[in-house]
Amino acid sequence: MPSKNASASKNAPRPGPARSGKGGASPGKPALSKPGKGRPRAGKPAPATPGRGEGGVRVAEAEFAAGAARRDQVPATRLFDEAPEIAFAGRSNVGKSSLLNMMLSRKGLARTSNTPGCTRQINFFDIHLAANESFEVPPRLVFVDLPGYGYAKVSKSEAAAWKQLLEGYLHERPTLRAVVILVDVRRGLEDEEADLVAFLAERPGIRVIVAATKIDKLSLSAQKPALARLARGPDGERLAVVGTSAETGAGREVLWARVLDACRADEVVPPEEVV
């Protein structure tokens, strides 16, 4: 994870393997699902206004597909039939696993831990959506759970390996369509999130979506101003912000609409190929 304002030792996750269990990720050799398994048919064409009404997404299948602790363990895009990928990034205690489970309508698929920062790998989830009569859905997409940052401390060598793994994925993955940056709505955009926004600006066509988590912790009168502050990016740019709550399900419809809209985007060209 790039960070010009915070040292790598502060941003790297705590040593220790990811928790294993049914539906969860375990370290080591990736266990890949079979491409095309249970693929649903695509729905009808999208409505004239992209994103409208797309919160009614129903997830037909969702399963952990692979975990990568090193760059050579990152699964090839062909194993997912070149499906669009949506990455989720955020601090270790921001509620990323809970948000993923809410989006997928699954309990415990993305494993949560009592010790923030324990996950040390990139986790890939193979997603199949049920066809919908009202809007188009991709036959397949991939949710990518990036490791939490800004909590635990590790050695300089491990921090350097993390930097290479995460920046390599974010900068080079050809099927990456969007990065959802999770931010605790009560804390706002901090240095690490601002660095990530700046880093992603180097990838043409990559959507940046800010998911303001724990919106239910604020009063109704405080929610709108807090989201407005988040929408003002670190360099004055305007960010797409969605208020979310894993407790109440708030924001699921809007966030799914933005995700599907990003999946429909044309192929994103890696920066080194841009003329």
Number of domains: 1
H/E order of the elements? HEEHEEHEHEHEH
Q: In percent, how helical is the residue content?
A: 10-25%
- Could you say what the CATH topology is called? Rossmann fold
Any low-confidence stretches, pLDDT <50, length ≥5?
A: 3-53, 113-117
Strand order of the largest sheet: 1-3-4-2-5-6-7
**Number of E-type strands:** 7
How far the N terminus sits from the C terminus, by CA atoms, comes to 26 Å
Description of the structure:
23% of the residues lie in helices and 18% in strands. The chain has 275 residues and is of the alpha/beta class. The chain has a single domain (8-14, 56-267), classed as P-loop containing nucleotide triphosphate hydrolases (Rossmann fold, 3-Layer(aba) Sandwich). It has a seven-stranded mixed β-sheet, sandwiched between helices.
Q: Which features characterize this protein?
A:
single chain, 275 residues, alpha/beta, Rossmann fold, 7-stranded mixed beta sheet, 7 strands, 23% helix, globular
Give a short overview:
It is built from 6 helices and 7 strands. The chain has helices at residues 8-11, 96-104, 156-172, 191-200, 220-231, 252-263, and strands at residues 59-68, 85-90, 122-129, 141-145, 176-184, 207-213, 240-243. The radius of gyration is 18 Å and the shape is globular.
